[in-house]
């Protein structure tokens, strides 16, 4: 009798141990986070935020992307992620249309799909994690330029890619803002720099030559703006032409310090990466996102329709740029 009791106790203990082991070894959520490209300050900062959230939430992330602004390479990498059966894929598309078929394939396989930083076709993802409203970015850029050129004169835009959805929509809002509020301002041309800083320098220098009456240049990516600023410095245009746009404070500090750039805008890419992972985990667990949810240190985040909104962009100037480190 005692022998049977002892065996029973051992078996119960074994089952409890195995149950605990299975619980401990239960696979965590795996989230694939893909930037437009790797190796630049902006997406390095986004990776930092994504990994911070992953550690906080206890999820696995894979942060990988192409080394250049290459949507074909993105599609190839995403196909690999689909075969690996990621729980969630979060991607910043280089081209909204070219990547849509691949993302739709992921959805059909039961993988949740987010876009972040830039959007794709709405039918190819569940939600878009937007760094700020398109309108607030477009209006903010134009207002900063108008303040410095007196609300009139010729301007030009150096963008990243002519196919980047977010940049194209920002430019739509920029043009609308000029039309509505600054009728004496004009955007004379838009030139791509393909997320290559040296190309941004060359394109901006070409603009100085082609448009002698140019009052200002917008660099609307984290690579285009420092490229445009460097072009102004090298061409002895500091103080003679207004340079503004979107970029990270660490890379822009030298240009603010020497007066080449007075004011520029950006949201926190660290926070954007952090929010993307929070939204991805919640989407996987719940199947949908509520109109408002808590995202760790960011607090309450609003979801409008199928867009998750990080918040309005920040103005960086000589007065506050030293307070930021990304």
Find the structural class using helix and strand composition.
Answer: alpha/beta
Number of strands: 14
- Unreliable stretches (pLDDT < 50, length at least 5) are 1-25
Q: Which percent band covers the strand fraction? A: 15-25%
- Give the strand order of the largest sheet, numbering strands 1, 2, ... along the chain: 2-1-3-4-5-13-12-11
Instruction: Give the CATH superfamily of the largest domain.
Output: Response regulator
**In the CATH hierarchy, what is the class of the largest domain?**
Alpha Beta
Tell me, rounded to a whole number, the average pLDDT: 92
How many domains? The number is 2
Task: Please identify, by name, the CATH architecture of the largest domain.
Answer: 3-Layer(aba) Sandwich
Q: Give the proportion of residues in helices.
A: 40-55%
Give the biggest beta sheet.
8 strands, mixed
Which series of helices and strands comes N to C? HEHEHEHEEHEHEHEHEHEHEEEE
Oligomer: single chain
Distance between the termini: 70 Å
CATH domain fold name of the largest domain: Rossmann fold
Shape: elongated
């Amino acid at each position: 009798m005692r022998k049977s009791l002892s065996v029973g106790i051992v078996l119960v203990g074994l089952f409890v141990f195995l149950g605990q082991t299975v619980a401990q070894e239960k696979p965590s959520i795996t989230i694939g986070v893909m930037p437009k490209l790797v190796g630049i300050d902006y997406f390095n900062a986004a990776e930092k935020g994504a990994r911070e959230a992953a550690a906080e939430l206890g999820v696995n992330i894979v942060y990988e992307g192409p080394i250049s602004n290459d949507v074909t390479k993105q599609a190839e990498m995403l196909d690999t992620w689909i075969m690996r059966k990621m729980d969630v894929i979060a991607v910043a598309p280089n081209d909204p249309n070219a990547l849509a078929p691949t993302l739709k394939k992921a959805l059909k396989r039961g993988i949740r799909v987010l876009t972040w930083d830039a959007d794709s076709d709405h039918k190819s993802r569940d939600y878009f994690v937007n760094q700020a409203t398109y309108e607030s970015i477009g209006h903010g850029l134009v207002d900063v330029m108008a303040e410095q050129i007196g609300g009139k004169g010729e301007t030009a835009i150096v963008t990243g890619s002519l196919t980047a959805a977010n940049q194209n929509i920002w430019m739509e809002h920029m043009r609308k803002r000029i039309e509505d509020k600054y009728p004496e301002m004009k955007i004379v041309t838009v030139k791509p720099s393909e997320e290559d800083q040296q190309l941004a320098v060359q394109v901006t220098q070409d603009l100085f030559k082609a448009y002698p009456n140019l009052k200002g240049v917008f660099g609307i990516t984290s690579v285009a703006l420092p490229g445009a600023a460097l072009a102004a410095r090298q061409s002895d245009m500091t103080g003679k032409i207004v340079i503004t746009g979107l970029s990270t404070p660490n890379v822009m500090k030298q240009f603010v310090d020497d007066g080449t750039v007075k004011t520029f805008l950006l949201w926190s890419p660290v926070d954007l990466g952090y929010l993307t992972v929070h939204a991805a985990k919640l989407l996987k667990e719940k199947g949908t996102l509520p109109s408002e949810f808590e995202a760790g240190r960011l607090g309450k985040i609003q979801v409008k329709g199928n867009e998750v909104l990080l918040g309005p962009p920040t103005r960086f100037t000589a007065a506050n740029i030293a307070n930021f480190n990304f």
